[in-house]
Structures are given as C-alpha cells and as structure tokens.
Amino acid sequence: MPVAIITGASKGLGRALAGALAARGWDLVLDARTPETLEETAVALKVYGTRVTALPGDVTDAGHRAGLVAAARRLGGVDLLVSNASALGAEPLVRLEELPTAGLRRALEVNVVAALGLVQEALPSLRAAPAGAVLTVGSDAAVEAYEMWGGYGASKAALNQLAAVLGVEEPGLRVWAVDPGDMATDLYAAAVPDDDGPRPDPVSVVPALLRLLDERPASGRYGAALLEGVR
After folding, report:
1. Are 142 and 156 in contact (CB under 8 A)?
2. Would you call the peptide bond into 198 cis, given omega within 30 degrees of 0 as the criterion?
3. Residue 182: per-residue pLDDT
4. pLDDT tens-digit profile of 175-188?
5. Fewest C-beta in 10 Å: which of 1, 168, 204, 220?
6. Residue 219 dihedral angles phi and psi, to the nearest 5°
7. Is the dihedral of CA 226, 228, 230, 231 positive or negative?
8. Alpha-carbon gap, residue 155 to 112, rounded angstroms
C-alpha cells in the first residue's frame, strides 16, 4: 500500500484528506500537536483497515520530523508528503505595525523551515517511490494583499517558492502547491474570530486533491479557481 505523511492531520483539511486516503487503502503517518485529538483521529481512521501511526509533536522539532519519516519507512516508504501544519503568527491576526516579530518567526518556522526540513528528511524515500509527490497547503494570502494577513501571507509565499524550486530540482517527483480557498477551519476561526460567515467544509476540497494524485499534473501551483471544477 502507498504511504502518506500528513502534518496538521488531527482536524480540518488534514483529517479530511487522511480519511479519503485511508478509504483508498493508503497507510498513514499523522502529525499534530495535541495528542488526544490526534489519537482520536487515528482511531476513527483505522475503521478502514489501513495502518495508521499517530505521532504527536511539533514540526519545528528536527527529531520529530525524523520520527515521522522513520515511521513511514517502517510502513514501506514515503509516497506522499503533505505539509498542512500552519501557524498564523498572531491570533487573532493583527496589522503589520502590531505583528510581534516572535510571531512572524514562529509562522516562518512552522510554515516554511519545518516544511523544508521534512522534505529533506523524506527525499530519499520520495525518490525511491514509484510515484513520489509533495503537496504543500498554501493560501491566497500568499499572492493577494489582505489587511492583517501580512505575516501569514509572507510565510505562505515563501512556501510557494520553495515548492516551485523543489519541483524544478526534483523532476522525478510531483510537487504541488495548493491554495484550497476559504474553509471552515479552526485556523480561520482563530485568525478572524469575529467573522462567522459561512465557509465550505474542508471535505469539499478533498476531491480536488485526490484528482492531483490520480492525474499527476505537472509540478506547480494550483489555486482554488483551478480546483473549483472538481469540488
């Protein structure tokens, strides 16, 4: 069975994608910071009969990243690496004049540095996989100037660039930077707690991600508008 590592997998888009892959028979290595929530997710997914390893921890910890890849190798390798874990930099979001530099560093460490570190750790296994792929979860804040989204958007813009260069440097892999669009997630609620408008469930994005895996288009950035037709 193919094996996927998914960070930020205890809820939201990470959990939704994990469920869809488990239903297809994928074995999974799941990461999140809250042990209880992650374990509950892992137990729920085991109903599909696949192997699910839950490793709580912080993706900024090099030892934790090594543990995720080691767990995947024990299951057979790494076919797919999904960098979904994210940090906002401030909760709720604030204007740049108020953004703590420590918060910006945290966003960069989680959203960019840790994502690269995990790729570096997993590259030998990804190269050895029959159809190795990396999927980074981005945001339209990486390319649009939204008030108060500057720090988070800057980190996601950097992540997009890393994914773009990785796709060039690793032509044997597929590297997709995906902007899933607005979703009803805890991350968005923490970012803008006063905005209670309706948003799509993360589950609605999953068919688009599965299409990437099925059709394996060229490495590149795939925005919400491009994915809309398969929701």
Report:
1. yes
2. no
3. 85
4. 999 999 889 898 88
5. 168
6. -55, 145
7. positive
8. 6
Question: How far apart (Å, rounded) are the C-alpha atoms in residues 28 and 19?
Answer: 10
> What DSSP letter does each residue of the chain carry, written as one string?
--EEEESS-SSHHHHHHHHHHHHTT-EEEEEES-HHHHHHHHHHHGGGS--EEEEES-TT-HHHHHHHHHHHHHHT--SEEEE-----SSSS---GGG--HHHHHHHHIIIIIHHHHHHHHHHHHHHHSTT-EEEEE--GGGTS--TT-HHHHHHHHHHHHHHHHHHHH-TTSEEEEE-------HHHHHH-TT-------GGGGHHHHHHHHHH-PPSEEE-HHHHGGG-
Measured from the Cβ of residue 60, the count of other Cβ atoms closer than 10 Å reads 16
User: What are the tens digits of pLDDT across the range 62-92?
Assistant: 999 999 999 999 999 999 999 999 999 999 9
152 part of the active site: yes
Q: Pick from 20, 7, 75: which is nearest to 213 by CA?
A: 20
pTM beyond 0.85: yes
Contact yes or no for 163/208 (Cβ under 8 A)? no
Question: Which amino acid does the sequence have at 77?
Answer: G
